[in-house]
Amino acid sequence: MTATAERLPVAHRRSPRRPAQDRLVGVTQLVRLVLRRDRTRLAIWVGAIVGIVVASEASITGLYDTQAELDQYGALVRDNAALIVQAGPGYGLDDPTTGAVLMNELSIWTIITVAVMSIFMTVRHTRGDEETERAELVRAAPIGRHARLAATLLGVFVANAVIAIGVVLSLLAYDLPTMGSLAFGSALLLAGVLYAGVAAVSAQVASSARSARALAGAVLAASFVVRAVGDVRGGTLSWLSPLGWAQGIRAYADERWWVHALTITATVLLVVGAVTLEARRDFGAGLVPQRPGRASAAPSLRTPLALAVRLQRGALIGWIVGVALISFFYGIVADQAESIIEDNPDMADFFAQLGQASITDAFLATSVLMLALTASGFTIASMLRLRTEEAAQRADFVLATATTRARWVWSHALVAAAGTVILMVVVGASLGAGLALMTGDLGHVPRLVAASAVMVPAMLVLASATLAICGLAPRWSITAWGMLAVAVVIGLLATLLKLPHWLVMVSPFTHVPPIPAAPFELLPLLLLGATAALITAIGLGAYERRDIS
Amino acid sequence: MSDVVKTFGSTRALDGLDLEVETGEVHGYLGPNGSGKTVTIRVLLGLLRPDSGRSEMLGGDPWHDAVDLHRRIAYVPGDVNLWPNLSGGEIIDLLARLRGGVDPRLRDELVERLQLDPRKKSSTYSKGNRQKVALVAALASHVELLLLDEPTAGLDPLMESVFQSCILEAAAEGRTVLLSSHILAEVETLCDRLTIIRHGRAVQHGTLAELRALTRTSIAVATNRPIERLDSLAGVHNIRTDDGAVRFDVDGADLDGALRHVTSFGVRSLVSRPPTLEELFLRHYDDDLATDQPSNSTP
Ligand SMILES: Nc1ncnc2c1ncn2[C@@H]1O[C@H](COP(=O)(O)OP(=O)(O)OP(=O)(O)O)[C@@H](O)[C@H]1O
Ligand SMILES: [Mg+2]
Questions:
Q1: ipTM rounded to 2 decimals
Q2: Which ranges of chain B does DSSP label H, i.e. alpha helix?
Q3: Is the Cβ atom of B110 under 6 angstroms away from ligand 1?
Q4: Which of A7, A23, B78, B240 could, after both became Cys, cross-link B149 (CB 3.0–4.6 A)?
Q5: Are B227 and B262 in contact (CB under 8 A)?
Q6: Is the pLDDT of residue B188 over 90?
Q7: Helix boundaries (H) for A282-404
Q8: How many percent of chain A have pLDDT more than 70?
Q9: CB count, 10 Å around CB of B25?
Q10: CA atoms in the 13 A half-sphere facing the CB of A476
Q11: A23-36 pLDDT, tens per residue?
Q12: What angle do CA A32, A549, B34 make, to 5 degrees?
């Protein structure tokens, strides 16, 4: 006993200490552990976020370098419901400055990205760790009950602070006003930490890391929708959304610093909630209890495909509900986009530049692309099951039975592909239903289902590339997400960032005809399909040859 | 398997491994941590592709004929990871069906004997219970060969004995079992023959009796007249005298000669102790011990 006691941290020695402090013993070491384990991921997040912000600054300052150009931008964008949904209320666009334009183009995406980073990081280090033996090792060490949660939140704070500092420095480097730059930087930091709080609560409530991420993601999606509806309808509802608060700071447009008080209060409440819940629940268990399962398998559970369906069913249902809601909402606002063109001649010019398409169709085409990029999250996550199953050595079980490798790979590939098709049909149908609700014209439904369905071949290219990565370089499977990130940047920010043509052509989504803003074309879809088939064959070939480990 | 080599980067996990398991026997597979037991079993399952060497299982090639062979074998991994949101019962049925069929009577009997609650989601199972799920899944179908990688890690002593009787029954039915294990008592009870592996090579194999014969027996003997020229006998080591008794260790092969010599001095008492399995092992597990004794290997 004495021999071990010698080596324990000083804090652990029995001495009269207040219990509250005991619960946090070990935080410092754990924060270092969190940051160390995440150093590569964090470097990528920070690099990507700050990089995109810098590229946008370069592009905006170049595009709008006279007041006349800024005014023109303001006139085009202000009061455009469709753009308000995507970007935010457009503070300061009545009298536009470079800062205000930049915020309108960039702020919401940056805030969402830091929120996503914070959610992933928080769940990984809390709930995610509990599913491995790692956290138990840590918990068994002289570490306080809440130390891991505290360390995770501190780690997330540090990560967000680094991003915020990088963003502020880059804004200042482009000569943007100090106050506005600090306002945006601090809004990013606080929003990131707030969503870490959301994730911390989800991690206590949910029964697995997967569902914790889904729950926190759903809160983020809901925040987006609430703020979008609120912004279109004059702003009241936006006060219920943390994303609304982050934009409500009004960077570069007469800053309202007091809005931070809302974010900070909510964050404190969330953290207190998470700590309270953590004290009540058992290690490794959620607050939502596991129901007992079946004593024997259903007769249908007899093939690898049935297993893959069973494993991914819950996630797919979650995605279906999520994209259905967002798409329905986009359908509703799409109708409002139309009314603007009638009393705004500038707008007509703006969309004339886009081609012959009507403003509604242009909006719908962009929405379909955005929703397809969102749904690709399912496609990739579903395909990555191959890797998770292998890494957790569950694949061994299946492959030690009379199941060929090809059959096992196909079982997951088919679920990913079929799930993708289902999601895109749901996107089209909900978008059409939302629009039909406003216009009374059910004809929108088949048109938009077609528009969404043509995205499938591009998504299958992503799926096949994920499969190929898992087959050829299993240790690098995480880079599949990088691929999606690149597709998102190309799809949504190509013009803003003035990306070179060859780079834009890399994304499979570039080759999909943007229906309904453009006519249907078969050839690119066939080529995308052929590409997906070829890459799949390469991936399968790799799986046939390599070790499973 | 003969002369099988499997490398991971610079690690030679299997370094010219020879392993032979005869049909119908329970074969113990022993070796220190990291010696290559799990790798061997994964090669046999066709999950790993060996760099060189020849392996054959049930008359087929583990890599090329994997699927056909897998209908005839069952596998229990050392580290059982199950699908968290499936219940134990579902997993047992699924795995058995994927292999080609489940015997529901046998399955229920095993669930009963191992005291497993099949309704629980596997995320809520303890380590021992996860192990039980894998065991039931493996034992519930009539396969020819069982590949068991430390199957009792995490089982309590009662369940361990249930497991042992299950294996003995399987053996009685004529099934072949390859059992990797660190639990010597278990190996002693169950195994007909065994192989000891070290650094990816088989260092010894044979029946327990054969292996014992290869090792030294400790003798303590008191004689009427002092024993002469004991140290000049072949195979006699560690001679020491205390309380009037002479103690020495003698190699299995030289036991007969040594005893003849000793009895000629008029034996008053003699105690002989065969090597325990522990001693057998520790020789191979510990580097220093292993080098100080002659290395015996049956052909
Ligand atoms: N996928 C892999 N990649 C790299 N090295 C590996 C891999 N699998 C096994 N090894 C190495 O091969 C060697 C043999 O490992 P193996 O798992 O077979 O040991 P073992 O005999 O089963 O040990 P234990 O008794 O601890 O289970 C070890 O040095 C291990 O680190
Ligand atoms: Mg092992």
A1: 0.80
A2: 37-44, 66-70, 88-99, 104-113, 127-139, 157-172, 184-190, 208-214, 255-263, 277-285, 287-292
A3: no
A4: B78
A5: yes
A6: no
A7: 304-343, 345-353, 359-383, 385-391, 394-399
A8: 88
A9: 17
A10: 10
A11: 777 788 888 888 89
A12: 80
Instruction: Tell me the one-letter amino acid at A194.
Output: L
How many A from CA of A393 to the centre of ligand 1?
Answer: 14
Reply yes or no on whether the pLDDT at A8 is more than 60.
Answer: no
Number of alpha carbons in the 13 Å side-chain half-sphere of residue A117: 31
The single-letter code of the amino acid at B282 is L
B90/A293 touch (CB, cutoff 8 Å), yes or no: yes
Predicted local distance difference test score (pLDDT) of residue A499:
87
Let me know how long chain B is: 299
Pick A301's closest partner by Cβ from B82, B88, B93: B93
Concatenating the DSSP letter of every residue in A214-274 gives: HHHHHHHHHHHHHHHHHHHTTSTGGGG-HHHHHHHT-TTSS--TTHHHHHHHHHHHHHHHH
Residue with tokens 């206590």: A204
- Mean pLDDT is lowest, of A292-306, A485-499, B238-252, B274-288, for B274-288
Q: Whose CA is nearest to atom 11 of ligand 1?
A: B13
Q: What is the distance, to the nearest Å, from the Cα of residue A224 to the centroid of all Cα atoms in its chain?
A: 12
Q: What is the pLDDT of residue B154?
A: 83
Residues 6+ apart with CB under 8 A from B199: B12, B15, B35, B36
Kindly state whether A545 is in contact with chain B, defined as any CB-CB distance less than 8 angstroms.
yes
Mapped onto helix, strand or coil, the DSSP state of residue A35 is helix
Closest by Cβ to B81, choosing from A207, A290, A392:
A392
Ligand 1 atom with the smallest distance to the CA of B41 is: 18
Question: What contacts A542, CB < 8 A, 6 or more positions away?
Answer: A468, A471, A472
Q: Rounded to whole angstroms, how far apart are CA atoms A268 and B83? A: 36
**pLDDT tens, position by position, A482-511:** 999 999 999 888 877 888 999 999 999 999
Q: Find out whether B246 and B221 touch, Cβ atoms under 8 Å.
A: yes
Sheet harboring B145-149: ordered strands across? Answer: B73-76, B145-149, B176-180, B26-30, B193-198, B201-207
Look at residue A180 and give its three-state secondary structure. Answer: helix
Rounded to whole angstroms, how far apart are CA atoms A323 and A115? 19
Asked whether residue A9 carries a pLDDT value surpassing 80, the answer given is no
Mean pLDDT of A10-31: 61
How far is residue A449's CA from residue A516's CA, in Å, rounded to a whole number? 10
Q: Residue B220: pLDDT band by 50, 70, 90 thresholds?
A: confident
Tokens of residue A388, six digits:
């998770």
Cα–Cα distance, B262 to A60 (Å, whole number)? 102
Distance CA B37, CA B282 (A): 17
Q: Is the dihedral of CA A412, A418, A422, A423 positive or negative?
A: positive
Q: What are phi and psi of B195, to 5 degrees?
A: -125, 135
